[in-house]
Amino acid sequence: MAARFPLVAAIASLLAAMPAQAQQDRAARALALQAKVAAATRMPRLSVISGAEQWYGIGVTLAAAGPYNTVRVLHRNLARCMASGLRLLAGNYGWATTSTGGTPSAPKERQNPGTILVHSAIEFAGTKTDQSAPRMPVRWGGQAVATMSPSSAALGFPNLLLSDPVSGAIAPGATFYERSSVTVATAGQLFFSALSLRGGSSGFGTDSGEGSAANSTAERAFDNAGGDVTVAAPQFAAGWSALAVLGYCSDGSVAPSIAIAGDSIVTKGDDAGYGYFTGGWALRAFAAYPHMLLALPGEREIDAVQPWNFASRLEASGYATHVLWAYGRNDLSYDLGTLGYTPAQALAAMKAVRLQAARQFMMPRGAAPGQVFIAATILPAPTSSDGFLTLSGQSKDVYEAGRVLFNDWLRDPGAGGFVAQANAQVAGVANAGTARVADPCAGLEVNAAGVPTLDGGFSPPATQTYASGTSSGSNPGNAFNDTGKAWTPGQYRGTELQIVSGTGAGQSRGIGGNSATQLLIADAWTTVPDATSTYRITDAPGWNGVHPGTRGAILSAGGVNAATLMQPLPVR
User: Fold this and answer.
1) Cβ(458)–Cβ(464) under 8 Å?
2) How many angstroms separate the CA atoms of 339 and 233, rounded?
3) Rounded Cα distance, 256 and 325, in Å
4) What is the Cα–Cα distance from 76 to 91, expressed in whole angstroms?
5) 3-class SS of residue 469
6) How far apart are CA 182 and CA 91, in angstroms?
7) Which one of 138, 143, 238, 445 is CB 3.0 to 4.6 Å from 441, fit for a cystine?
8) Do residues 530 and 473 make contact, with C-beta atoms less than 8 angstroms apart?
């Protein structure tokens, strides 16, 4: 186990320089690393074709009147090859604020406490308005329904299931639909999953054919009703769908694909121009490649390398050729803020964890080679007194010194830098992966003068104010009204709404859509504005420094050279 998790040895060398509280914390973690985690059973030559752009983890209770929930999810073959033998990779996990196997901290992975039954089909020729196209039923070990039950064993992960192959082929770039239904074994039980759907024409939706119908026996029977099923704003539905669609490329190759792991920064609703609880710089940067979204809001990297916190996601990620590892912000606040480390001590601890994560993915898994491990730099997180309208209103994050040290280590091209140290861990290992660095800071970060500068510590200010005024009141929790306006529907999607004065002053939210007189926001109000609230709509890059909004996600993605990072493993 020490060979697979080298952090045990690395931690020991750090303990002498750390406070007593830190020693206890690290020692407990080191002991816990002895827990068993399964190696991925990835089938050679199987490629990720498409991944559901979903945030996996909200606990949903289905009504006793009919414990069914069906979603119709749009997929696209991003593998750039003719794909056949499609298979669904099913997951049954969510997140919790405590761990059954380790010390409590940020939200982390847990298995569903109840049994779920999954019933799926694939529509190869379905369109957004025609849902009566022939469907190919998905079988699970020859059965029409997959039964996923929680393990009674301690640390009983992973909770994944791979379907039988489905006949049919999908051309490169072609779209198709997955229609999946989940049933709980006992009415009123929870299941873990949630989807950002583009279906419908209201809220955050576009007319894509996606949609959901909760507690519908008709939908569970895969009815042939045409048209979209509208999901109320925000466009975020409780439902279950596959983690990914896998398949075989007709030319025998394995298509490049990426598993995206990280915290809320890479999968947050603040990127309201993309979708609710999807988007972010990572999905934007790698949107052209098959991807699986495996991030959990609030997670720290030190949590993600623990077997009980990442087991299902580790198993699922084994089907991807590349892994994006976008952690660090929550580790900075914990190490520097909670444990009281100096920036140098925090750097040492974070380096050890990042190297452990790299080795875990770069080592071969069974018959599959190691993966390309892409470590992401940490974005700046300044605060602002004016909603990021100006640079002069910004102040650097209190953890800035630690962030700068960590990013400098990631970028260091020499023997002491991350890439060289990560690759040295697998030197001489046949079919090992390789390490690379994604630098979203290169597209977003500026210094106090507004000049693009790595580790400058600031975000670009807003460049435009599109509209302003005073609310007409009667605002819902996820919307904002101004009946004196006549906006073009959808024109402000992806911009930022700031309450300047009156009730709720100081709040900013990403705008996911709008009607002629109402703005729909991605995150509910903390204090609901009223008729005293004045506002402005700008192109500020984010609303709280930590989480980039739509413009911030676009700028950050622009700093990432996905084509270079997604190159296959070099021939050795």
Assistant:
1) no
2) 40
3) 16
4) 20
5) strand
6) 12
7) 445
8) yes
User: Which residues of the chain fall short of a pLDDT of 50?
Assistant: 1-41, 65, 98-104, 154-155, 215-234
155-179 residue pLDDT tens: 455 678 899 999 989 999 998 989 8
Nearest to 332 by CA among 285, 381, 392, 264: 381
Hey, which bits of 52-126 come out as E strands?
Answer: 59-61, 68-76, 83-91, 93-96, 108-111, 116-123
Q: How many CB atoms lie within 10 A of CB 59?
A: 17
Residue 521 CA to residue 492 CA, distance in Å, equals: 11
E strand or H helix that includes residue 393: none
Tokens of 31: 């002991």
How far is Cα 483 from Cα 470, in angstroms, rounded to an integer?
10
Q: What is the pLDDT of residues 308-351, one digit of tens each?
A: 788 888 888 999 999 999 999 999 999 999 999 999 999 999 99
Contacts of 104 (CB under 8 A, 6+ apart): 97, 98
Residue listed under structure tokens 């006793």: 64
SS3 267: coil
Residue whose C-alpha is closest to residue 360's, from 422, 416, 409: 422
